[in-house]
Amino acid sequence: MRREVVFDIETKNTFQDVGAYNPSLLEVSLVGAYFYETDTYESFLEEDLPKLWPRLERADRIIGYNILGFDIPCLQSYYTGELLKLPSLDLMAEIANRLGFRIKLDDVAKATLGIGKSGHGLQAVEFWKKGEIQKLRDYCLQDVKITKDVYEYALTHKEVKYVDRMGQVQTCPLPLEPVPDGQQTSFNLSLGL
Most buried residue, 74, 165, 177, 193, by CB count within 10 Å? Predict the structure, then answer.
């Protein structure tokens, strides 16, 4: 059974609020995730994060867009283990490794899937500040769905597309493979022995 997890996080504050570009200084408002094992989209508020950790630890691989540069560093202060030790796939990093520059998820999604993101991260902070939790969930889970669809496209087609700075659609080879069933063993990094 496939145990990959696609996830995305939203924060309560911005880099401007904390005075530095340091994801570990940001507070998590919500994590959205898609679990292949159960074929479900779920969300976790900050206080629900302890319920997320065992599911990430059991995952064959955690997948996201800019998770190494943003999501994982933001989450690390909430987790007692080392999140970077979990098997992961950062789609943005994979694309940047091939192209030599970073591409926004929106530009990849529009060219690859024909749909863009429903908004931007600053909107999510505003949703949090206004107490609009359902809008925050919807926004985050839409990003998770787009990320999952880009990942699935790359698995099938071994490439993704993106809109370049001139507005032209380009192709980036991305020969991804799912983790074979049973390859990753479950381990627990968040509970003391």
Answer: 74
